[in-house]
């Protein structure tokens, strides 16, 4: 029976309702994690109980501040050693690994171990953002719901992505960016059956955020200069520089991680060692401690001087790369935004000085820098553009963001095989999808590829006659199987050379040992449908029937025909790689 492709069905509605429920849980978890980070920060740096947002930079501990991140790293190391090693890392790469390797089955204990470890790491001064752990925790909630309800692996992946998107939308008020991030880093597809639940989950989380936090942008910006042509070119150049910086920073992070791996210490102690560097840097530059969302707000609003931005860029990079390489629990988005914002602000100020007539706005340059650095490092280019726009609600910055992030993305793709999100799992031999292209087999019709006309055999033909015909080498004898039709031309079965060998009796009629066709494919079917039918039926060839008459064989489609259909695609790809040189079939040797 020909499978009927569909874009959505009743099951999609069920998963969407579950995704909305997951979004409610993820939103509550995001609020709880944010409050927990604030509570740990108050307790660790100020010795008081409170859940109000606070920056650890305002502490009065003096030199004792060095010990706070060390103690936090020690606790995280113990939790990883005796709880679950999977709490270590960025958050998003670990979620990607569960999608690719474990059928989106996140261990249930990670649902509370990951946010708790992240709250301790960040609350004790870790230079991370809360978004990575929030995304990982939301994903874990979605996966847990999927496991409890015995969903398929594809549905669990959708629920995982829905939870992750909801957590991000609830934290930053960026529903569209959350959906794009889920598509680019978790779903690896863009289909209604996955997009609809994730989009509804992000919208639900945003609705809940509006109810408790209002509609103010996460990083408010003052009125900006209208970008002119030369300014746009400058922003694209800043994006390209940030793309190069993203490559260098990605390599730095993994070089630090490799350095920790060579230490003669159990990995349990690495976060404490990384915390020592965080504490020492925090003693010199207190604003590198903690999530640092205030730093990003100061950069994009122009309240931070260029010299201060460069100092923040350098010290934050050192602190974050060492801490992340040590394997503690934290995120990458906020640190990369801070580092990129500092670099972008400095470049924008320099270009504004060199090209005073260009109308370059250093605040837009800072915004472009922070988004472009993340776009180059993560390869989530669309999510980066939209995230920067949704967190600032600055429409004048949208065109500079698009140009700068795309330039960074291009530089990253040219210079680096894997992203900061995929390098870790790629080292384990896992191939992460990097391109989302339409299925080529779904674009080619069977009638354009199948062997026609069909070399049909009569149902009353004797086995001996068939053997003699095959031995004659006449046209059509090269096939391995043939449609068998009755006297009216109606398809009754298929006979293969293997069937003929099993027949034994030369006088036997083909109708006596031909295999009744369990499946056939109409000429307007796609090669994807044909491939699915072959797989499900366990056959290597399909009779092709007329569009208006499902019993009249007009051709036959084989596995070789399916492979040959890729030739045109390969010709085009080969021509591009060879400078439009023609594709030639290799000579047989």
Short synopsis of the structure:
This protein has helices at residues 10-46, 67-82, 92-101, 110-123, 131-148, 153-172, 175-187, 192-213, 229-261, 270-284, 293-301, 306-325, 333-354, 362-378, 381-392, 398-415, 423-426, 463-472, 497-503, 510-513, 527-537, 559-564, 567-577; strands spanning 457-458, 481-485, 491-496, 521-522, 541-546, 549-558. With 589 residues, the chain is mainly α.
Helix and strand arrangement:
Layout: H1 10-46, H2 67-82, H3 92-101, H4 110-123, H5 131-148, H6 153-172, H7 175-187, H8 192-213, H9 229-261, H10 270-284, H11 293-301, H12 306-325, H13 333-354, H14 362-378, H15 381-392, H16 398-415, H17 423-426, E1 457-458, H18 463-472, E2 481-485, E3 491-496, H19 497-503, H20 510-513, E4 521-522, H21 527-537, E5 541-546, E6 549-558, H22 559-564, H23 567-577
Parallel strand pairs: 1-2, 4-5
Antiparallel strand pairs: 2-3, 5-6
Helix pairs in contact: 1-4, 1-5, 1-6, 1-8, 2-4, 2-10, 4-5, 5-6, 6-7, 6-8, 7-8, 7-15, 9-12, 9-13, 9-14, 9-16, 10-12, 11-13, 12-13, 13-14, 14-15, 14-16, 15-16
Task: Explain this structure.
The chain has 589 residues and is mainly α. The chain folds into 3 domains: 10-213, Orthogonal Bundle (Clc chloride channel), CATH 1.10.3080.10; 229-426, Orthogonal Bundle (Clc chloride channel); 441-567, CBS-domain, CATH 3.10.580. It is built from 23 helices and 6 strands. The strands form 2 sheets. Strands 1-2-3 form a 3-stranded mixed sheet. Strand 5 (541-546) and strand 6 (549-558) form a beta hairpin. The model has no long low-confidence stretch (mean pLDDT 86).
């Amino acid at each position: 029976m020909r499978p009927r492709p569909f874009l959505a069905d009743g099951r999609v509605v069920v998963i969407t309702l579950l995704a909305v429920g997951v979004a409610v849980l993820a939103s509550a978890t995001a609020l709880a994690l944010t409050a927990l980070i604030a509570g740990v920060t108050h307790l660790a740096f100020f010795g008081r109980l409170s859940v109000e947002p606070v920056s650890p930079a305002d502490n009065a501990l003096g030199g004792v501040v060095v010990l706070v991140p060390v103690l936090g790293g020690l606790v995280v190391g113990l939790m990883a050693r005796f709880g679950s090693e999977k709490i270590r890392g960025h958050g998003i790469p670990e979620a990607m690994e569960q999608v690719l390797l474990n059928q989106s089955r996140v261990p249930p204990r990670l649902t509370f171990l990951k946010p708790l470890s992240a709250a301790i790491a960040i609350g004790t001064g870790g230079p991370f953002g809360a978004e990575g752990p929030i995304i990982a925790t939301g994903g874990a909630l979605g996966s847990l719901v999927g496991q409890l309800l015995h969903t398929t692996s594809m549905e669990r992946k959708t629920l995982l992505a829905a939870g992750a998107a909801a957590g991000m939308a609830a934290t930053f008020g960026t529903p569209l960016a959350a959906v794009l991030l889920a598509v680019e880093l978790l779903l690896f597809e863009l289909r209604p059956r996955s997009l609809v639940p994730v989009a509804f989950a992000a919208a639900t989380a945003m609705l809940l955020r509006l109810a408790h936090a209002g509609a103010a942008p996460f990083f408010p910006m003052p009125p900006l200069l209208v970008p002119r042509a030369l300014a746009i070119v400058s922003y694209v150049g800043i994006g390209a520089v940030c793309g190069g910086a993203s490559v260098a920073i990605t390599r730095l992070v993994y070089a630090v991680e490799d350095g920790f791996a060579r230490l003669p210490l159990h990995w349990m102690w690495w976060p404490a060692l990384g915390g020592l560097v965080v504490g020492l840097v925090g003693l010199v530059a207190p604003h590198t401690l903690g999530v640092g969302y205030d730093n990003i707000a100061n950069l994009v609003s122009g309240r931070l001087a260029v010299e201060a931005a460069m100092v923040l860029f350098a010290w934050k990079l050192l602190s974050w790369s060492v801490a992340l390489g040590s394997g503690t629990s934290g995120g990458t988005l906020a640190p990369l935004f801070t580092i990129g914002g500092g670099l972008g602000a400095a470049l924008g100020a320099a270009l504004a000085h060199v090209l005073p007539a260009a109308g370059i706005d250093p605040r837009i340059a800072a915004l472009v820098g922070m988004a472009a650095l993340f776009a180059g490092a993560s390869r989530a280019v669309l999510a980066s553009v939209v995230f920067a726009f949704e967190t600032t609600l600055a429409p004048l910055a949208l065109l500079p963001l698009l140009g700068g992030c795309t330039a960074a993305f291009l530089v990253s793709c040219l210079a680096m095989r894997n992203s900061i999100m995929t390098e870790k799992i790629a080292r384990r031999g896992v191939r992460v999808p990097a391109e989302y292209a339409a299925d080529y087999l779904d674009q080619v019709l069977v009638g354009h590829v199948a062997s026609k006309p069909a070399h049909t055999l009569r149902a009353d033909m004797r086995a001996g006659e068939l053997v003699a015909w095959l031995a004659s080498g006449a046209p059509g004898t090269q096939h391995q199987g043939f449609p068998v039709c009755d006297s009216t031309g109606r398809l009754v079965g298929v006979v293969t050379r293997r069937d003929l060998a099993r027949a034994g009796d030369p006088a036997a009629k083909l109708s006596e040992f031909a295999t009744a066709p369990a499946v056939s494919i109409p000429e307007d079917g796609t090669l994807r449908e044909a491939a699915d039918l072959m797989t499900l039926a366990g056959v290597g060839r399909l009779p092709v029937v007329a569009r208006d008459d499902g019993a009249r064989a007009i051709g036959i489609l084989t596995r070789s025909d399916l492979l040959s259909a890729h030739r045109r695609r390969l010709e085009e790809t080969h021509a591009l790689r060879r400078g439009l040189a023609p594709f030639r079939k290799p000579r047989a040797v």
